[in-house]
Amino acid sequence: ELKVEQNPLFLSMQEGKNYTIYCNYSTTSDRLYWYRQDPGKSLESLFVLLSNGAVKQEGRLMASLDTKARLSTLHITAAVHDLSATYFCAPQNYGGSQGNLIFGKGTKLSVKP
Amino acid sequence: DTGVSQDPRHKITKRGQNVTFRCDPISEHNRLYWYRQTLGQGPEFLTYFQNEAQLEKSRLLSDRFSAERPKGSFSTLEIQRTEQGDSAMYLCASSSYYEQYFGPGTRLTVT
């Protein structure tokens, strides 16, 4: 059974600082998604990482995937208040259900001035 | 707007009542997923359709839950005899080969 662990679960950052969110998962998956969720809202797709070694960047966020280590990271550069949200990683489950996503508990990011 | 839509956005019901939610996926997507999200948790998979066929149901989907996707277009999720533990955000996602796009969700409150 695919399980996902994110850390940290809560992250309070100052504007301008850098930080990394880690996502570990327990069984093989070749595809991993990162989503952002604002309070009371649905999920906004940030990145889809399709293969080992994949790296994608958008603005101040950069995501990477190491399928051998079963690890993905989301790196935040020079954080700004607008990045405050909850971030979820979700590897794709091929074991049974042909592609549903398994979500971590999320990392609640708060960026303070 | 060509994204995933869900209706209603909010539903308040009394325990024991039945409720039905609707999801309209992106038109060219043949895969459709239902997830449930409770406060402070990540979404949990409920069920999955490829076209009109329901191919998998999570163990979270008790006998009180049923989902359909007639003609492989929109999908409905019905909960019978609602319980307070059913209170959650119900999310629908449709999928191309590379992406899963989520709808705005239906927030259910059972009183």
If you had to describe this structure to a student in words, what would you say it looks like?
The complex is a heterodimer of chains A (113) and B (111). By secondary structure, chain A is mainly β. Chain A is built from no helices and ten strands. In chain A, 0% of the residues lie in helices and 51% in strands. In chain A, the strands form two sheets. In chain A, strands 1-3-8-7-6 form a five-stranded antiparallel beta sheet, with no helix packed on it. In chain A, strands 2-10-9-4-5 form a five-stranded mixed beta sheet, with no helix packed on it. The N and C termini of chain A lie far apart (41 Å). Chain B is mostly beta strands and 111 residues long. Helices cover 0% and strands 51% of the residues of chain B. Chain B contains no helices and eleven strands. In chain B, strand 7 and strand 8 form a beta hairpin. The mean pLDDT of chain B is 93. Chains A and B meet through strand 5 of A and strand 4, strand 5, strand 9 and strand 10 of B.
Short descriptors:
heterodimer, A: 113 residues, mainly beta, five-stranded mixed sheet, 10 strands, 51% strand, B: mainly beta, seven-stranded mixed sheet, four-stranded antiparallel sheet, 0% helix
